[in-house]
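This protein record is not my work; I was only asked to verify it. Take the sequence as given and treat only the tokens as open to question. I have pasted the whole thing underneath without changing anything:
***
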Amino acid sequence: MKAVQFANGILRPGMPSSAADMPAGLHVRYAAPDRALAEFVTGYAIYAAEDRAPMVNWYLPSPAMISIVLDAGPITVSLGNHRFGPLDPVSLYGPTSRAFRTVTHGGIAIGIGLSALGWARMTQRHAGDFHNRIVPLSSVVGAEFAERLREGLDVLDDETSIKPLLDDMLVPLFAKPSPREPLIRAFTALTVTDGVIEMKDVAERLDVPTHELRRVATRYFGMPPKMLLRRARFLRSFIRLIGDHGLNDYSAIDSSYFDASHFLRDAGTFLGTTPRRFLAAETIFLRASLRARLMALGAPTASLHDGAPRARFSQPHHDDGTRGQPEL
């Protein structure tokens, strides 16, 4: 598949092409996985750039992700003080607690977001070993699957075929249940709950010892529970500020923040700078991604995805002015 085969819009039928609001030659798509995968895959993201000139973009911290690049030039990623690249065409981004910077040279990038449940079913490896790291996917799931995934996507000539192919190929990857799934599922729900930040409170709600919560968080989510809860709290607040509110209106930040300076300290941890300076950098794909993902999947970023299957709206409005009904 070539980047020039893309057209403006996103994968969901009826979604307005203005949702991503991208300049000519740049494209963003989002699609929900099949319901059988909804707890394991947080969504499919497809980015395309027709121009081969170097392009810089910044992205927010996120859970683990599989990335496949097609018809693409070399990609390098800077994450904190570490530089990765040129990346393997089929890579695994481990869970991140820092914003990261990419340099790309055109082509298509397909991202498969992985929930903690997805990680638990995909591999016996500890997610914490991949915290803020990027490695070839073959080093985790084997070369045969990684190559089949790349080859299957490469021969497609229609963007609407991407989601069905991924749905079919990924089912076997998540076939083996983990005995820790009830706890992983319950902790996932708490990480996206406003005001929940203290590990002791979470352990009590889940009725597990704090040392057990720490083991589960590090093994399947990729970092200690305190860091996960802080990351989710910061991202909830940051996205509210750049959405309906403004960077000068801190009334919508999470209730567990003491004040604006408390929030800004977290910005230094997770963005490496202030929100205003971060947004002034190269974030064209990030901004479009937040809008498109929210419309397509119901959450603006994978870090705030709770794993629940989403209702899909076929059309925002009917001709008579009434709203469309959800397709369940």
